[in-house]
Amino acid sequence: MKLQFVSVLALTMSSFAFAQNPLSVHVLNTETGLPSANVDVVLEAQQGDKWVKLNEDKTNADGRISELYPKETELRKGVYRVTFKTGDWFKAQNKRSFFPEVPVVFVIDGSLEHYHIPLLLSSYGYSTYRGS
């Protein structure tokens, strides 16, 4: 009976790992050291020579969108673009900025179950990397 409980627990834990949305983003303002809430973010997939919009959302109070990939959609290999609408966000903060948006183009190759795109942002610069 104990073995059966462990098997059910293992199955539940593995299902939980696969239930996580495969794409998240996080925006941090490096000028203030604080998260950037209410940044509009657009996710697109490259299909041939066109970009197809898949989803759009705003960062939460912690500067995060934990489920940017469309729900109920299987993760597909390909080239994707996440565009952070930084100019609109800075304008709402009554600040000037140099970059009206930050497009991040990346490849989903299927080697990971979850992809994370952090954006470190200031009025006149940004940095991004593949997070975990």
From TrEMBL:
<protein>
    <recommendedName>
        <fullName>5-hydroxyisourate hydrolase</fullName>
        <ecNumber>3.5.2.17</ecNumber>
    </recommendedName>
</protein>
<keyword id="KW-0659">Purine metabolism</keyword>
<dbReference type="InterPro" id="IPR000895">
    <property type="entry name" value="Transthyretin/HIU_hydrolase"/>
</dbReference>
<dbReference type="InterPro" id="IPR014306">
    <property type="entry name" value="Hydroxyisourate_hydrolase"/>
</dbReference>
<dbReference type="InterPro" id="IPR023416">
    <property type="entry name" value="Transthyretin/HIU_hydrolase_d"/>
</dbReference>
<keyword id="KW-0378">Hydrolase</keyword>
<dbReference type="InterPro" id="IPR036817">
    <property type="entry name" value="Transthyretin/HIU_hydrolase_sf"/>
</dbReference>
<dbReference type="GO" id="GO:0033971">
    <property type="term" value="F:hydroxyisourate hydrolase activity"/>
</dbReference>
<feature type="signal peptide">
    <location>
        <begin position="1"/>
        <end position="19"/>
    </location>
</feature>
<keyword id="KW-0732">Signal</keyword>
<feature type="binding site">
    <location>
        <position position="26"/>
    </location>
    <ligand>
        <name>substrate</name>
    </ligand>
</feature>
<comment type="similarity">
    <text>Belongs to the transthyretin family. 5-hydroxyisourate hydrolase subfamily.</text>
</comment>
<dbReference type="Pfam" id="PF00576">
    <property type="entry name" value="Transthyretin"/>
</dbReference>
<comment type="subunit">
    <text>Homotetramer.</text>
</comment>
<feature type="binding site">
    <location>
        <position position="64"/>
    </location>
    <ligand>
        <name>substrate</name>
    </ligand>
</feature>
<feature type="binding site">
    <location>
        <position position="129"/>
    </location>
    <ligand>
        <name>substrate</name>
    </ligand>
</feature>
<comment type="function">
    <text>Catalyzes the hydrolysis of 5-hydroxyisourate (HIU) to 2-oxo-4-hydroxy-4-carboxy-5-ureidoimidazoline (OHCU).</text>
</comment>
<feature type="domain" description="Transthyretin/hydroxyisourate hydrolase">
    <location>
        <begin position="19"/>
        <end position="131"/>
    </location>
</feature>
<dbReference type="GO" id="GO:0006144">
    <property type="term" value="P:purine nucleobase metabolic process"/>
</dbReference>
